[in-house]
Design brief:
The structure is a homodimer. By secondary structure, chain A is α+β, with helices and mostly antiparallel strands. Chain A has eleven helices and 13 strands. In chain A, helix 1 packs parallel to helix 4, helix 3 packs parallel to helix 4 and helix 5 crosses helix 10. The interface between A and B is large, with 64 and 64 residues.
């Protein structure tokens, strides 16, 4: 099995990524090893658990490999870093075919290669349900880290891409157990194959942005984390939220999906207007201004969502609910 | 919950460990961050799964916290490095009390503090069974890594401490479902609270040892990994194996526990006689010479176990079998 995994995860021998160049020992010894650098190092871990975060009714093993790495790369993006190495702990029933396991690693390796990441280790264990635990190590690309604690009053709040797609797909999957509604491909893509915004993050850092988070728990919940860490409040305009247009096809409450649904893995960042102009001119993915950071002395507590007339909208929920919880 | 975990994992504010000094961001942002170094970096991950690697009938949550970190620190030791940071993915049923979770992190933090390691991140998720996935980053302490591939013909083979204790404890637990045999404390300690041999590893590196592995799969299986990676064979003397003396109290086959049982987390290393003498004089834990590395041109394939008369003993098994497999 280790030989199959080594094959499935082998980086392209022509790769000239920094991670490949610095690698000393990959899969096969007690630990992985690579040449260090004086840069600030980053590390994160995230797990996807069967029947909690995904089911094999809607997800393939390749999708699982992709997504379990993507959610970690998204965390590295949210700090403004680049990713270098991934280690993978996969637990699954002994009855799972080796083809599924290699598919899992192939899906992961495809995404890894795209971002210059090398899969350097991990382990497999028996368990009653499938759990993919991925750890990613990366490093800062400059002296700036995009921290949750760096938002300042009067900063603009912006997000990349569109929101709500993953949540709409989950809602549609739940309501179509009988398979009678076709779920738009774009929504399934948002749920199963999120694209970590690493290139976007590097533009943010280069242009002087200091505060960002990736939207994994949901827009309102994640912006709430920024408010808490930065000791500020936030007002967002419901009418400005870039709702994934496909949400309207299947979701009774598309705005709710965008505000409270999670797993979009877009970046939310805050900065002043001049910085925003420079960022927007350079980004490969369209950003949208959705609101403003408020001083705690002159605003309500936490995140307030207002409609086009300035009236406060009451949240229907406080973040993403996973499949099985 | 995150606040409880932050409390349980907070390093002693008086700690002057390198990991504490270099930490930039711990638990609470998208990733952990610390100041890098030009040294060779090491990373490893390992999982403990309920009913496969442990049960709560014999293990407490503190034991689980200790062991799930210890097995990773042991991998860092086996490379001759020092450990710096740990990230933890814990999955468990939603019904688990928060006291259990903080106990888990307390058990882990006690061991971490002993080795100057800081717990800097992780995540929690619902699941039907408890799985502790730990990821540890460390770095080399010199230019030498203890590789599986560095064994040379005519090297002595040595192990630290005693072997078979964890396997004897597992065997005794299985045969005492009715609780009518007292299992010696030393064996339970070997199973539940293994001590990673980091200090020992640093002596090995300082004295010029080049090849080591930690005994997690079992002595014969792990020595087999060295043979494969180094393209050598090995002969070990059954009579020289340092069998944990307590094994004789409960195990019908103490030697079998020491040869084929796993999870001892002692170090096996190979080196020439002069190096061994220097190492043995400095080690805090008694090493024992158990055999010799053989040239493939003049020996049988893989690992051969011989008795005091030089007769080959046939292996009864090829490594550690976990609880549930």
């Amino acid at each position: 099995m280790i030989e199959l995994i080594k094959d499935a995860t082998r980086p392209n021998p022509k790769s000239i990524s920094d991670a490949c160049q610095r690698l000393v020992i990959g899969i096969g010894d007690d630990t992985a090893a690579w040449h260090g650098s004086p840069r600030v190092q980053l590390a994160t871990t995230d797990s996807l658990v069967e029947n909690v975060h995904f089911t094999f009714e809607s997800s393939t093993w390749q999708d699982l490999g992709h997504k379990s790495l993507a959610v970690n790369l998204s965390d590295i993006a949210a700090m403004g870093g680049r990713a270098l190495y991934a280690l993978v702990s996969l637990t699954c029933p002994g009855s799972v075919d080796s083809v599924c396991i290699t598919d899992f690693y192939r899906g992961m390796t495809q995404l890894a290669a795209k971002h210059g990441v090398v899969i350097v280790g991990g382990n497999m264990s028996a368990s009653s349900e499938v759990t993919a635990n991925v750890f990613v190590v990366g490093e800062a690309i400059s002296n700036t880290l995009l921290r949750r604690s760096s938002a300042q009053a009067s900063d603009l709040i912006a997000v990349t891409g569109s929101l709500g797609g993953a949540a709409a797909a989950v809602a549609a999957l739940k309501s179509t157990a009988t398979g009678d509604i076709a779920i738009p491909q774009a929504l399934m893509q948002a749920l199963l194959r999120p694209e970590p915004r690493l290139a976007t993050a590097h533009v943010l850092v280069a242009e002087g942005v200091q505060c960002a988070i990736d939207i994994s728990d949901g827009l309102v919940a994640d912006l709430g984390h920024i408010c808490e860490c930065s000791n500020v409040n936030a007002t967002i305009q419901a009418s400005q939220i870039p709702v994934n247009p496909e949400c309207h096809e299947v979701a009774p409450d598309p705005l709710g999906c965008a505000l409270y649904g999670g797993e979009d893995y877009e970046l939310l960042f805050t900065c002043n207007a001049a910085t925003y102009e420079r960022v927007a001119a350079r980004l490969d993915v369209t950003p949208t201004i959705i609101g403003e950071i408020m001083d705690t002395r002159t605003s309500s507590r936490g995140v307030v969502v207002v409609d086009a007339e300035g009236r406060t909208l009451t949240p229907g929920s406080t973040g993403w609910k996973h499949f099985g919880i």
